[in-house]
Design a protein that fits this description.
By secondary structure, the chain is of the alpha/beta class. The protein is 48% helix and 13% strand.
Length: 184
Amino acid sequence: MKQAAQVQSIVVMGVSGSGKSTIAQALAAQINAEFSDADWLHPADNLAKMSSGQALSDNERLPWLHLVGQHMQQLPSIHQSSVTACSALKRSYRDILRAYVPDAIFIFLDGPFEVVQARVETRRHDFMPLSLLASQFEVLEPLDDDERGMRVDIEMNPDVIVSKIEVELRRLIIATGRNDEETR
């Protein structure tokens, strides 16, 4: 995808184990965008709590979500498109991110619990134990029809997922008549 056909901010969202970091990194490389992982911005207290197997409350997530939004907001100001891996499980969380980057596009990596559970069981993650996966599925609010974004099935090969996202991004850009050059 050419630079002029990119959007400024893309958020790859979903539960732990859905492939957010993998897909976001691959997409960023493919479209020549800056990759960031929202997990890098978690305060130490959040990391410690999750590492102990306790889910974060909305109040504990709020400062982190504002940091993620601020980070996303800074990247377009230096004329760099960004792809951010962030759980963004609830609409209210996505609304916070949209307050910083109103035109963000959300890519929802969606798949069944059993598939995600199998992935989480076979990987090592510094602070996201398998015991928290059920709570993530419980609070997950898929994208609403009025949210700018798309749902992608995680059971496909990552290369196929990235290609599908690129095609859909082009379609969204054409449908809205917007691109990078118009938003600068």
